[in-house]
Design goal:
It is a single chain. The chain is built from 23 helices and no strands. With about 500 residues, the protein is mainly alpha-helical.
Length: about 500
């Protein structure tokens, strides 16, 4: 029986010459079926992931500019930035189970529209709600790319899933590097407006639309093997290994993405160019993922996960100690080597060991990982950083600075200065009532003073007081994530030993 070729849910395609697929591809052809261009589909998937990572990085990078231009509160800024995480998870959990029914090309068409619409909504925004709506649409488009492209790559290369998923996921850190350098370049030539930075998303979006949206797609593995939606759900929720991997995904995503979200801010508070450290981490991750083939062959997927857990723990602990530039870059290098294979290898193991979970299984992994980082890890790290930063503030110097700032800024007509004066006065009042610096009111008052730019001397003094404290608090928050690496070492060590005793890692095939 001829296996289906065209993407479920896609429009009919004209007859075109069929081809016999080379070994290792997932795009068999039948008589009269159009040829699937594996290379073009894989390239288009990589470009789509670049759009996702550029969007992810850019929206985070313009938060301060949005706050100043639209006079947003910290809570409102948090809602806009948070949408980049939980919006991704919502999109995954809604559309991943429908991938076999609607088709991968249909999901990518939705993501294309989402990237275009979300970017334009934010660029033309008039306030909080339109900014929030645009950020949410972009985030959901990001989730649609993962919901479609992870099963697409697995379908194109069923004999080489882990390696190809690693090469596909080269372009998340790769896109962060591209977006970061492009934003830096715009600033360097005096074109650093947040609208232009946000517009960078449109370049890879238009490119992947041209590469993918009118191409014939293969069917997913599940569709080709006749796996029903019910079987997919049973494999996803009734397989013990799947539950183990979901729990581990929550932790691996937390170790990778949680600290990465904080690296620039934490290191910049300590006087380092944090963005350069982040670019270095992501650049190294991209290179290593591209060269994943020999590593997978040498260590096996579970061996890679075990080594990753150990190295990421060592690197993250080293980062938490702070230190000079070379020491920080050294720790960041170990951390990058540790986390670089986590996300794609986790997806590869699920696709190879629980193949009947199909697109739903891959979508659940992405949902759990991103939702955990957005709803638990990142806020938890921020809370820890606030607590330890507050304890690090020099009490007499901080109180004196707040008092002098309140007196100086209260006499200025500028609205931001007036707000900063009130924040400083309230913080001093709370200090006198409770006998200790209130948290987070003290740090917020210092940030308000810095944001006014009304008095260069006050701004410089506030930065000298707050910077070291913020740096210390952020470094301690890194240290609190390190124990997760110990738990992951136990989990992946157990899986690795079990594989060794069973004769080595074996990928399962549907119907085998």
């Amino acid at each position: 029986m001829t296996e289906p070729l065209s993407d479920t849910g896609s429009s009919s395609v004209s007859d075109a010459p069929s081809r016999t697929p080379p070994a290792g591809t997932g795009s068999p052809s039948g008589p009269g079926s159009p040829a699937v261009d594996d290379g073009r589909l894989f390239l288009g998937s990589c470009v789509a992931l670049i759009a996702t990572s550029v969007a992810f990085a850019t929206v985070g990078a313009i938060m301060l500019a949005l706050k100043r231009e639209f006079v947003l509160t910290n809570q409102e800024v948090g809602w806009i930035g948070g949408a980049a995480l939980w919006g991704f998870a919502v999109s995954q959990v809604v559309f991943a189970p429908l991938c076999d029914t609607l088709g991968m090309r249909f999901l990518l068409r939705l993501s294309f529209l989402g990237h275009l619409a979300g970017t334009l909504i934010m660029i033309m925004a008039g306030g909080f709600w339109t900014l929030f709506a645009g950020g949410l649409v972009i985030a959901m488009a990001n989730g649609l790319v993962e919901a479609a492209c992870n099963p697409l790559v697995a379908s194109l290369y069923p004999e080489n899933k882990t390696v190809k998923l690693n090469r596909f996921h080269v372009w998340f850190p790769g896109g962060v590097v591209i977006g970061g350098l492009a934003s830096f370049g715009l600033d360097a030539i005096g074109l650093g407006a947040w609208e232009l930075k946000l517009g960078l998303i449109l370049i890879p979006t238009l490119a992947y639309g041209w590469l993918l949206l009118n191409q014939p797609f293969p069917a997913t593995e599940g569709v080709r093997a006749g796996v029903s939606v019910g079987e997919m759900f049973r494999a996803s929720f009734a397989t013990p290994l799947m539950w183990v991997m979901l729990v581990a995904m929550a932790m691996t995503a937390s170790v990778e993405l949680g600290p990465n979200r904080w690296v620039p801010a934490v290191l910049e508070a300590g006087g380092m160019a944090g963005i350069l450290v982040l670019v270095w981490i992501n650049g190294l991750m991209a290179v290593l993922r591209f060269r994943a083939g020999p590593v997978v062959k040498q260590l096996s997927p579970t061996g890679i996960l075990l080594a990753s857990a150990v190295l990421s723990g060592v690197g993250l602990f080293g980062l938490s100690l702070g230190g000079a530039g070379l020491v920080t870059f050294g720790s960041a290098t170990v951390f990058a080597v540790g986390v670089c294979y986590f996300w794609p290898t986790m997806l590869g193991v699920v696709s190879e060991r629980v193949p009947r979970s199909g697109a739903l299984g891959l979508g659940l992994m992405g949902t759990v990982g991103m939702a955990t980082v957005g709803l638990v890890t990142t806020p938890m790290m921020g809370q820890i950083a606030d607590r330890y930063a507050n304890e690090r503030l020099p009490v007499p110097a901080t109180v004196a600075l707040l008092e002098s700032s309140a007196a100086t800024l209260a006499g200025m007509a500028d609205a931001d200065a007036q707000e900063a004066a009130r924040a400083a006065t309230d913080a001093v009042s709370d200090y006198e009532s409770i006998g200790s610096l209130p948290q987070p009111a003290t740090a917020n008052a210092l940030r308000a003073i810095i944001a006014t730019d009304a008095s260069p001397d006050l701004v410089a003094e506030a930065q000298s007081v707050l910077g070291p404290a913020d740096n210390y608090g952020g470094l301690i928050s890194f240290r609190y994530v390190v124990p997760l690496c110990g738990v992951l070492t136990l989990i992946f060590g157990t899986l690795y030993v079990r594989d060794r005793r069973g004769g080595g890692y074996v990928a399962e095939r549907i119907g085998a």
